[in-house]
Backbone:
């Protein structure tokens, strides 16, 4: 299918967020050295001017990265006027030297683990995603039958595995450890984070209209069977796990909760306007089991995951929904119980990730999940903008794995048009757009 890029508001931060896919190696052993982007840029390696034919590797990846991939501009983003204003409001000093900003806009590598050609101002380079290259650089292309396996053992990341790629991406696109777009950053002007693994992987892989890598015939066949849906489901579980980990890390000594853990739209009508904003939440934006006026944890990925699981394993889905509701209550009513509720939910998610990553999704299940998505939307489950955003990306993934035709391109565009302005988001209109895509009718409410 032709992938339709989400519109401006649906991926409010697509340009900035695409620059936030770093993977810090600050805790790596110094023997695992980052050699720098220039090490990969030879014309006989990955710096060819154009894709080479007759090889599974394009060999122009460096050129694609430097000219088209937003990751290459991650560090430069810290030097623009908006970043300078944000850093000033936060009292951070120059953004390009602030650890809180560098954590996701560059490769954070200890001095002892930097090779002679490593440059921090390269932004998010090859090794931020593929892993420190010192152990596998010399052998990863030697043509030996087991060279790839040797490279993996030496530190090359298996990004073809959705669980591993998901864990890498969410470390910045959702947050983990010391990488946190907190409430203060959001108030200072940082874009709201939004992430879905399959959509963002495809937007990155084809950024600028240039393929970052060529799919093998095996991968294309696997993807045509259930790959996109399987990546989507795995990504939901990994992103949910990262959100829970962030919440657990933030529980403790602070006098107030870290508000970035909550759904922005449970307080704000818009994340775009600043002055004279009516910040009251839209009607119906409160999750079931949470009293009106209460804050709601950012559970968009979790809610989509529960919807999908209900088709494949209703017991798991009910357990997940129950644990999420308990966590939502604790966050509002019993702060001391948040850690316990989060740990219970986390245990289930940890068990789900490998199952979802390794279990193909049957065609009948893909159709049923798509129908369940529409039904949930029609019942008001995706009443807030952030969750609808997730549902729209999910619909495109599922349609791509089912029966999408070129005639549906206009309907996909209309679906994202319903998300073009968060101040005008209408849950019923969104549900109807979703119904038009899936061939189902949403009753008038």
Residues:
């Amino acid at each position: 299918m032709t992938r339709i890029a989400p519109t401006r508001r649906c991926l409010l931060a697509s340009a900035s967020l695409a620059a936030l896919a770093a993977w810090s190696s600050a805790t790596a052993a110094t023997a695992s050295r980052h050699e720098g982007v220039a090490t990969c840029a030879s014309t006989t390696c990955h710096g060819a001017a154009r894709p080479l034919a007759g090889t599974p590797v394009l060999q122009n990846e460096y050129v694609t990265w430097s000219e088209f991939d937003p990751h290459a501009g991650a560090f430069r983003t810290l030097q623009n006027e908006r970043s300078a204003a944000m850093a000033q409001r936060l009292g951070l000093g120059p953004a390009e030297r602030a650890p809180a900003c560098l954590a996701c806009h560059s490769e954070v590598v200890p001095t002892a683990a930097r090779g002679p050609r490593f440059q921090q101002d390269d932004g998010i380079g090859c090794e931020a995603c593929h892993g420190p290259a010192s152990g596998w650089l010399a052998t990863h292309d030697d043509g030996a039958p087991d060279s790839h396996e040797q490279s993996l053992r030496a530190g090359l990341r298996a990004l073809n595995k959705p669980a591993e790629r998901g864990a890498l991406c969410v470390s910045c696109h959702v947050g983990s450890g010391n990488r946190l777009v907190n409430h203060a950053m959001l108030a200072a002007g940082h874009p709201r984070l939004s992430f879905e693994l399959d959509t963002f992987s495809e937007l990155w892989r084809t950024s600028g209209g240039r393929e970052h890598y060529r799919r093998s015939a095996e991968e294309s066949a696997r993807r045509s069977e259930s790959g996109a849906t399987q990546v989507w489901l795995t990504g939901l579980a990994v992103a949910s796990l990262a959100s829970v980990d962030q919440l657990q890390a933030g529980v403790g000594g602070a006098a107030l909760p870290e508000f970035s853990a909550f759904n922005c739209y449970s307080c704000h009508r818009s994340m775009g306007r600043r002055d004279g904003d009516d910040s009251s939440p839209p009607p119906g934006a409160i999750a079931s089991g949470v009293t009106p006026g209460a804050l709601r944890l950012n559970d968009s990925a979790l809610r989509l995951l529960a919807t999908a699981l209900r088709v494949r394993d209703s017991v798991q889905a009910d357990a997940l929904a129950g644990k999420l509701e308990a966590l939502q209550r604790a966050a509002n009513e019993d702060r001391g119980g948040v850690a316990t509720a989060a740990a219970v939910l986390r245990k289930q998610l940890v068990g789900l990730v490998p199952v979802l990553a390794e279990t193909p999704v049957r065609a009948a299940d893909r159709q049923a999940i798509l129908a369940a998505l529409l039904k949930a939307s029609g019942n008001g489950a995706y009443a807030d903008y952030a969750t609808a955003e997730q549902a729209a990306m999910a619909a495109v993934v599922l349609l791509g794995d089912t029966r999408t035709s070129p005639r549906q391109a206009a309907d996909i565009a209309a679906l994202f048009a319903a998300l073009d302005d968060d101040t005008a988001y209408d849950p019923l209109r969104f549900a109807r757009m979703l119904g038009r895509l899936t061939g189902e009718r949403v009753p008038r409410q």
Summary: The CA atoms of residues 87 and 93 lie 6 Å apart. Residues 217-250 form the longest helix (34 residues). Residues 1-30, 273-290 have pLDDT under 50 and may be disordered. The radius of gyration is 22 Å.
